[in-house]
Amino acid sequence: MSLDIKHLARAATLLFGLAALGVSQQALAVGTAANTSINNRATVNFAVNGVAQAPIESSPTGNSVPGVNNGANTTFVVDNRIDLTVTELSGNATGTTPGQPNGVTAFTVTNTGNAPQGYQLSPTNLTGGSLFSATDVFDMSNLRVFVDANNNGTYEPATDTATNINTLAPDTGVVVFLVADTPITATNGQAANVRLTARTAAPGSNGATLMTQTAGAETPGTVDVVFGDGTAGGNVARDGQGFADDQYIVSSATLTVSKARTVVSDPFNGTSNPKSIPGAVLEYAVTVVNAGGTAATGVVITDPVPANTTFANGTYNAGASNVQVQVGANPATFCVAEVGGTDSNADGCVLAGAGVLTVGAPALATVATGAGNAVTMRFRVTINN
Amino acid sequence: MKKGISVSIASALLLAFAAAGQAASQSTVDATARNDAPRGGCIVLKTVAEMEQVYTAENGAAAKRLVPAAKVVPGGEVVWTVTASNVCDKPADKVAIDNPVPDHMRYVADSAMGPGTDIAFSLDGQKFAAPEALTVRGADGAERAARADEYAFIRWTFKNALQPGSVAFARFRAVVK
């Protein structure tokens, strides 16, 4: 019993491996090659008046001459059955971010016919439709198609430059990439569906000469063209072309900024129920939350110091700093905003001459996703007398 | 040559044969060479390749007919028909037609037929037997019944003599691998 289980496990591993490599399991033997002659010749043995006669071979129109090779083959040639499969490789959507160039989705085009073929490749943006449980709502820009020249499954711009399949032998497949740029206007969670269509073309024509079916009756002795492609994956039967769809899904940072104000103290009440009177100290807290799918980097908070107030120094870190930065519930960190607009200590915090506070890297740089990673920047001002 | 064909069997078959003869004659037979060759055989033996075509009959129903083998691709089924016409004035007896299953083709199970014949098959062209008597040795060393797609030769043995002017026929189907 244990032996059986081991075999089963091995078989499953093999199947998985094939699927991962993108080897189409439908690509069975593609059959007798086009232009193969199939010959047939019968022989009759008989007797007349009880005397055995020399055997007679058949011919297409009838032969009565006894003897080996006095007959002739009845012959036809195997015609060109065009069949192909186009499959999406990854089985899931390709993540991208707004404005990202050269996002790659991968497909396999397999020749399941019985003769070498070329393929004309076209990429298209789909409109609407659901794939991988997301619905298409935007189009990718600069959508291009490239053939994986070394068939290593990785898009290499310097190597993979062909845009059509020149010649593909029967029962072989090649990886094809769609490459596209994500518009900056795309937002987190949005999906763009794309389609690769491969049309069968004459081998060696770089996809330029599309194949057509031979119309009417067959021409004996010549190879006729018959479209034999099926309907898997919504394809149209017997049109000599195949397609498959893939999806780009946007994973972006979605930032929300809020600002709160509290009164810390006033000259009369101190810290006990302080009021916003001249001379009071106010604390502003600017909170940035990322509700998107990707961490935001290079975040810089700019906040003008309110009119009729004065930026307060020596307010945090035992009087050593004047700006506090806190990520989630982590211990606060501090920096010093230098008056005059020059970040002389290079801590990312500076106060420009016009009273604009800027807080950036390294004091603040990345806002990771989720409320627990919200970043809060605090500073204090004094209401002018 | 065509004279041998026009002997009547059933009228439906006759139509099919005539059509096939026209198509086939365009391709392979060298009639001149045939005429120069020595004559004297009592049987004209002819092989045609045809395929089934579904068409709409006059009454609107779908019907099948045989047409010359056309646009045959892997998986396509071809109907091979061998006709033997006795062109002598004496009966031919002990008539047996041998036909190999063509290269690149697979015999279709139970498709061999021929009126008044006993049909035997062979894997090697030497031993002919009924299907149930044909065995092959499997990879595990055990004998098993041969599958129809393993048959390599077919032999029709006619039970009765072929009378002068009459035509016998044998037929089988095979699929392009």
A few lines on this structure:
With 385 residues, chain A is mainly β. Chain A has 1 helix and 28 strands. Chain B is mostly beta strands and 177 residues long.
Give an overview of the whole structure.
The complex is a heterodimer of chains A (385) and B (177). Chain A has 385 residues and is mainly beta. Chain A has three domains: 37-77, no CATH class; 80-250, Immunoglobulin-like (Sandwich); 255-383, Immunoglobulin-like. Helices cover 5% and strands 39% of the residues of chain A. Chain A contains one helix and 28 strands. Chain A has one helix at 2-21, and strands at residues 37-40, 43-48, 51-52, 56-57, 74-77, 80-82, 84-88, 94-96, 103-111, 117-125, 130-131, 134-135, 141-147, 165-168, 173-181, 191-201, 225-227, 241-250, 255-265, 281-290, 301-304, 309-311, 323-327, 333-335, 338-339, 349-351, 356-359, 375-383. In chain A, strands 19, 20, 22, 23, 24 and 28 form a six-stranded antiparallel beta sheet that branches. Chain A is rod-shaped and about 145 Å long. The N and C termini of chain A lie far apart (90 Å). In chain A, 36% of the residues are buried. The model of chain A is unreliable at 1-29 (pLDDT under 50). Chain B is mostly beta strands. Chain B has one domain (2-176): Immunoglobulin-like (Sandwich). Chain B is built from two helices and eleven strands. Chain B has helices spanning 11-25, 31-36, and strands at residues 43-56, 62-68, 77-86, 92-100, 105-107, 117-122, 128-129, 135-137, 143-145, 153-158, 167-176. A five-stranded antiparallel beta sheet of chain B has the order 2-1-3-11-5. Chain B has a four-stranded antiparallel beta sheet with strand order 4-10-6-7, with no helix packed on it. Chain B has a two-stranded antiparallel sheet with strand order 8-9. The longest helix of chain B has 15 residues, at 11-25. Mean pLDDT of chain B is 76; it is low at 1-38. The chains are: A mainly beta (385), B mainly beta (177). The interface between A and B is large, with 54 and 63 residues. Strand 2 of chain A pairs antiparallel with strand 4 (92-100) of chain B, so a sheet runs across the interface.
